[in-house]
Predict the structure.
Amino acid sequence: MSHLITLQSDGAQISDDAWQLVQLPASQQEVRKQAGKIVLFKLTGEQTVTPEQIAGTLIPASGKVIVPLTVFIARRAELQTRLAKQEIGVWLDTHESLSDLSQAQANLNALPIIAVHVERFADGRIFSLGTLLRSRYGFKNELRALGDVLRDQLFFLKRSGFNSFALRADRSATDALASLNDFSAPYQGAVDEARPAFRRYNR
């Protein structure tokens, strides 16, 4: 069963995934530790991907693929033909910079899909990235959340501009689908409805 939820004009549904996610090969660098624990957050600008990983990333020769941001930037020339065919999308981690993406690809709407990967559910930067992509950068196409995406987050990810959600295989897409109806009329303004509640209703 598919674990992809997409928002359509007539509502949300569980959909087949036409996109293949391309992963970076494992790094040989030693993982930084703090107080005996792996540091699970990263700061923008921190070097987390090596040139060897970028060069060693295997990109399928055909089909629709979503490649890591670092790979897209470094190997953009070889992807141009497929980008023109709407076969290339980009995914980024929450610590990566949208300005790096926009510098490499000035017209973000040439990308049919942008995905944001969240490593741990406690990382709230995915909401800010979604909002920025929709508002500041004017991205109009599919915006996907993937990684450690929880049922309780889907409604708020939708409010932040995401219109597709790739859940982990160990989570129920049917249960997550229902979460999009947890609230009927949010108070705050957001990407999906800019006006707060007091502006939407006459008293």
